[in-house]
């Protein structure tokens, strides 16, 4: 008895994995977060499959309905936006399912952080500039542990990827400033990455809050911040060791 928890990807229905799509096409029941998963994906289900949108349901309701279908011998898919491991609220579902003797198999997906980087044509880890990306959120109604406050994390001066923070950009701006980020540090906001109404807003720490307001972005946005997001970075000469012709590694001897 098992449930498949599948990452649907960021929006574009072609960005689900082949494995995820196969399971979706074979499923008897599909529970999906209709607030963010593209309907077009759900249309890939077989005609007789039962489709259950879950945005209006609470945890116990969702799990009870899933358990019922699994006990009837049905193949059940739980479709989550992006990758299920990031702010997916999967743990609480898994733990209730396990209490009912039901296992899960998780199929990863393309997280919106990588979709946002792709559409912004950004490399988040630039040699000699930053080799670290922190995935986090600004503190809103959901508390963030003291040691993970944005101001503390930002002191690393690496690339930051902020989920669930579109309405909190005043806080983001002051946390980054308090961590010593200059006002001209680049920030890219991607609204609904890979959806037809996607918007890419190139901003800075100093103008972030104003730019969010001007563009009317209050949800479904990924905020990428740091010098790796500088739009003129490709014109500078950042080079990795991997493709340096003088660098020897397991697959190539470097030239003298
Ligand atoms: C509940 S979290 C789920 C994240 C998801 N598991 C992932 O890996 O992308 C929802 C947040 O993810 C981000 N998000 C999800 N899809 C997005 C998209 N297509 N474009 C931009 N941000 C997105 C936004 O920050 C949104 O507030």
Element layout with pairings:
Layout: E1 2-7, H1 18-26, E2 29-32, H2 39-42, E3 50-53, H3 59-71, E4 76-80, H4 90-99, E5 103-107, H5 112-119, E6 133-137, H6 150-154, E7 159-163, H7 169-178, E8 186-191, E9 199-204, H8 208-214, E10 221-225
Parallel strand pairs: 1-4, 1-5, 2-3, 2-4, 6-7
Antiparallel strand pairs: 7-10, 8-9, 8-10
Keywords: Cobalamin biosynthesis, Methyltransferase, S-adenosyl-L-methionine, Transferase
Protein name: Precorrin-4/cobalt-precorrin-4 C11-methyltransferase
Family: Belongs to the precorrin methyltransferase family.
Polypeptide structure, described:
The chain is built from 8 helices and 10 strands. It is an alpha/beta fold and 256 residues long. It folds into 2 domains: 2-110, Cobalt-precorrin-4 Transmethylase, domain 1 (3-Layer(aba) Sandwich); 113-235, Methyltransferase, Cobalt-precorrin-4 Transmethylase, Domain 2, CATH 3.30.950.10. Strand 2, helix 2 (39-42) and strand 3 (50-53) form a beta-alpha-beta unit. The chain starts with a strand and ends in a 31-residue tail after the last strand.
Notable traits:
single chain, 256 residues, alpha/beta, Cobalt-precorrin-4 Transmethylase, domain 1, Methyltransferase, Cobalt-precorrin-4 Transmethylase, Domain 2, 2 domains, five-stranded parallel beta sheet, five-stranded mixed beta sheet, 8 helices, 10 strands, 26% helix, 20% strand, binds S-adenosylmethionine, methyltransferase, EC 2.1.1.133
